[in-house]
Design a protein that fits this description.
Blueprint lengths: L3 E4 L2 E4 L4 E7 L8 E7 L6 E7 L4 E3 L7 E6 L4 E6 L8 E8 L7 E2 L3 E6 L1
Length: 117
């Protein structure tokens, strides 16, 4: 059973930065794709950023240029560096992983990010 545990969320002022971490219970080099999603109150969960096993990354337009996703296979960890945060970035952020193209198979429990104006 794969477990993903997020950390690093919190309260930050607009314009500030946070780095989220997602630690896996298993080696992550086997995951084809790992990603960060977020869900704001009353909204659907959306993909924010994802990174492949070859370290190719892509981002939602709303965060491109402000967020950076990276992975450290040795530490079994995926990071999301968030800068120039905006109140509309407020959400619960979830880490997820898949072994093959399709739907994400494994999810973390989420970490809350709140950006005050």
């Amino acid at each position: 059973q794969v477990h993903l545990v997020e950390s690093g969320g919190g309260l930050v002022q607009a314009g500030g930065s946070l780095t989220l971490s997602c630690v896996a219970s298993t080696d992550i080099f086997g995951f084809l794709v790992m990603g960060w999603h977020r869900q704001a109150p009353g909204e659907q969960r959306e993909l924010v950023a994802q990174i492949t096993s070859g370290s190719t990354s892509n981002y939602d337009d709303s965060v491109a240029g402000r967020f950076t996703i990276s992975r450290d296979n040795v530490k079994k960890t995926v990071y999301l560096r968030m800068s120039d945060l905006k109140p509309e970035d407020t959400a619960v952020y979830y880490c997820a992983a898949m072994y093959r193209w399709g739907q994400y198979e494994y999810w973390g429990q989420g970490t809350q990010v709140t950006v005050s104006s």
